[in-house]
Amino acid sequence: MTIILATALLALTAAVVLLYAMLGELSSRLPAENEAAADQIRPLKDYRPGATAAAWPAGLLPLAGMERAVVLVLSPICTTCTKVAGELGQLPDGALGEAVGLVVSTGSRETGEAFVAEYALGRMPHLVDEGGSWVTGNFGVNSSPSALVFEEGVLTEAYTFGTVQAIREQFIGTILEGAH
């Protein structure tokens, strides 16, 4: 009886090891969820299409009158946002064109300015939005990273994204071509 039980236990152990090996092989063939999600642009649900700002801050004012412009919204406390900020900081000057700006939504001006400095984002038109009041108050957007698309100062589209490359591939190229 002991021999039969030991043999059954050994067979069961071998089957479990084989099952885990097969699952490991399968998972190595699929992209990680984070990698796949980072390359996707998803429409935001919570924003106010057709909204305009009562006043555009000086740092973003050039974007207000453009035919099409994009404002990227990042937050220093968001892991994906810090990754995107690193990508933005490594781009050569003018790589995104003049029709792309940045809002850093943060709890304090000092934190936002440190974020801009750390990732060399000051060369882009930008705003440190203390408390997120400008973005949330005018456009109803309170998530990051977000990409807000404007046509002559009117919010027409809003997306969430995970990489600068995904944004460039999806729509910044067409905005850059159409920017005046």
Strand order of the largest sheet: 1-6-5-2-3-4
Please name the CATH topology of the largest domain.
Glutaredoxin
Order of helices and strands: HHEHEHEHEHEEH
Helix share bin: 40-55%
Shape: elongated
- What number is the mean pLDDT? 82
Number of domains: 2
What is the CA-based Rg, rounded?
23 Å
Structural class by helix and strand composition: alpha/beta
Strand content: 15-25%
Q: What characterizes the major β-sheet?
A: 6 strands, mixed
Supply the CATH superfamily name of the largest domain: Glutaredoxin
Number of strands: 6
CATH class of the largest domain: Alpha Beta
Termini gap: 85 Å
List the uncertain runs.
Answer: 21-36
What features would you highlight for this structure?
Glutaredoxin, six-stranded mixed sheet, 46% helix, 180 residues, single chain, elongated, 2 domains, alpha/beta
Question: Could you walk me through the main structural features you see in this protein, from its secondary elements to its overall organization?
Answer:
With 180 residues, the chain is of the alpha/beta class. The chain folds into 2 domains: 2-30; 37-178, 3-Layer(aba) Sandwich (Glutaredoxin). It contains 7 helices and 6 strands, in the order H-H-E-H-E-H-E-H-E-H-E-E-H. The protein has a 6-stranded mixed beta sheet, with helices on both faces. The chain is elongated, with a radius of gyration of 23 Å.
